[in-house]
Specification:
556 residues, alpha/beta, Alkaline Phosphatase, subunit A, 2 domains, eight-stranded mixed β-sheet, three-stranded mixed β-sheet, 21 helices
Length: 556
């Protein structure tokens, strides 16, 4: 009994107020316990994805699974040994547990891959968008896998060691974890290497390492690019072939949000979700591929001269955009935004946000419908003498609350999903709400065209293209933002239309019948930069006529 009494203080200590015994652990033991917890409870999405690849099938499947589990636990241990010490262990673990619980919920709910691009999307999400994702369905997993284990962490008393001994022991644990991870991978190297080589994106499902490493990568990238001057593009640009007596032109570029080609009425969708455009008869490009599966990638990409074909994220973000080239050529530009900004496309140029607009006809406490951007649009014409290009950046079909994206008069398809928790709704209800939101984009475009037609002093045109598509439950996928290499067509195929006033078409010598035939050919976001330059007759070394969708059907 005496020996037990002497040993007890090293294992636990009685709480001064409650009298309860608190277990005493080393930081390394706590890290190992947390590593096992993460491996067991936080990687369901990873194991589901690995099983779907077939890597766990066959006689050696059990060995692959065991080695993966051991390797992941050891890698978690390495991460925690780097992050934790006696002073940071409890707050850092609490943050990791709560964040991981939320990450696991959204990964399971929407099949989210937490790569660097998705982390950027999350960091740039505004409060209105994030509030839509905070629902009652998050409460239980947050309590079970975040709050409860965090309480257990705070109930532990951490063992104190002299600094030299603590460093020596930490080094042993790190070396041991590295050796265990290496050994597990080597033991099943053929299977694991094949899995990671052929299905590279599954690594973005290993939690919490996925978001921790992605966040570190984003921070390093942002730091590397911070305060760097923008690379000038098309500074020698000029408008050619325009007599002084020519009527000024107004081009409106509408950047849609989350509208996919599969649900676009003009593309032959079973439902006519574009009835007003059908009546107007714009030129519809039926096979258009987005540059990315998220706004953060697609918007800067489509306004750059590099596009997906020569994609370089840092170069695109650091370079001037199509709008800057137009300004160099003397064409006034402005950006009207009902989203989360222009993603650097309009840096230093005219910009107007409607995020906090108060127009009661379009806005409530949760935000505004896109029609708010049309207020005053007619007044923009004539702001400066000469040609103008205005960009309207829609809220569009931004999910998961599709039911909030349209007015009651466009609630045509019922019943609708009226929850941000898409798992609570049938797929039919989700699609109904989504299609009603497409009707809102159709209405918005029709109203914009009507406004342009009323501009008697200018020749006018409109280009509409969505930034990316959306998954609505196909193969268990929801929303967007999948890594581009594995993103389905529902996330990368988008609608695009062109409308020209008769004066604009005549002035440019555009054969609309020819263009309707050409519009059936494959196109992409890469065409936007060059097509706008060609349409506005801007001469610059950045212009590539091979990527101009209108060049073959217009007078040079």
């Amino acid at each position: 009994m005496s020996a037990i009494g002497h040993a007890l203080p090293r294992l636990a200590r009685r709480h001064a107020l409650t009298g309860a015994y608190r277990p005493e652990l080393s930081v390394e033991t706590l890290a190992l316990g947390a590593s096992l917890f993460f491996s067991v409870f936080s990687n369901v999405a990873f194991w589901r994805a690995v099983a779907a690849t077939g890597a766990l099938h066959g006689p050696n499947g059990w060995l692959t699974a065991a080695c993966l589990f051991i390797a992941i636990t050891a890698l978690n241990m390495i991460l925690l040994c780097v992050l934790l010490n006696r002073w940071t262990a409890k707050p850092v673990l609490t943050l990791l547990l709560l964040t991981t619980a939320m990450a696991v919920h959204f990964m399971g709910q929407y099949t989210v891959y937490l790569d660097a691009d998705m982390i950027r999307n999350i960091l740039h999400t505004d409060s209105k968008e994030s509030n839509e994702l905070i629902s009652f369905g998050l409460v239980l997993p947050l309590l079970l896998y975040g709050v409860l284990p965090a309480c257990l962490v705070w109930s532990v008393r951490l063992r104190h060691r002299p600094l030299r001994r603590a460093l020596w022991i930490r080094g042993l644990y790190l070396a041991g974890a590295i050796a265990v991870a290496t050994g597990a991978i080597v033991l099943s190297f053929q299977s694991i290497s094949g899995l990671m080589r052929n299905h590279t994106d599954v690594r973005h499902l290993i939690t919490p390492g996925n978001y921790v490493m992605s966040l570190a990568r984003v921070a390093l990238d942002d730091r590397a690019g911070k305060n760097l001057p923008r690379i000038p593009v098309g500074t020698e640009a000029k408008v050619v072939g325009r007599p002084a007596s020519a009527r000024p032109r107004l081009l409106v570029i509408v950047i849609g949000e989350t509208v996919r080609a599969q649900n676009w009425g003009l593309n032959g969708y079973a439902r006519q979700t574009t009835p007003q455009l059908q009546r107007i008869g714009p030129i519809n490009f039926s096979d258009v591929t987005a540059c990315g599966s998220s706004t953060e990638i697609s918007v800067p990409c489509m306004f750059s001269p590099y596009g997906r074909a020569h994609y370089d994220k840092q170069k695109i973000e650091r370079s001037e955009s199509l709008l800057h080239v137009l300004e160099h050529a003397g064409i006034a530009t402005s950006w009207r935004d009902n989203q989360t900004g222009c993603k650097g496309v309009c840096t230093g140029l005219a910009f107007e946000s409607f995020e906090h607009a108060k127009d009661p006809a379009y806005c409530d406490a949760e935000g505004c419908l896109d029609g708010v951007m049309l207020d005053g649009l007619g007044d923009i014409a004539g702001r400066r003498a000469g040609d103008e290009v205005v960009v309207l950046h829609q809220l569009g079909n931004h999910g998961p609350s599709y039911y909030k994206r349209y007015p009651a008069r466009l609630r045509r398809y019922v019943p609708v999903c009226e929850s941000a928790e898409l798992g609570e709704c049938s797929r039919a209800e989700i699609v109904n709400a989504y299609d009603n939101a497409v009707l809102q984009t159709d209405d918005f475009l029709a109203r914009t065209i009507d406004l342009l037609q009323s501009q008697s002093s200018r020749d006018t045109a409109l280009i509409y293209v969505s930034d990316h598509g959306e998954s609505l439950g196909e193969n268990g996928l929801f929303l967007h933002g999948m890594p581009y290499a594995i993103a389905p067509d529902t996330q990368t195929k988008v609608p695009m239309v062109l409308w020209l006033s008769s004066g604009f078409a005549a002035d440019r010598g555009i054969d609309t019948s020819c263009l309707r035939r050409e519009a059936k050919a494959p196109a992409s976001h890469d065409n936007l930069f060059h097509s706008v330059l060609g349409l506005m007759q801007v001469q610059t070394r950045e212009y590539d006529p091979r990527l101009d969708l209108f060049q073959s059907c217009s007078r040079s």
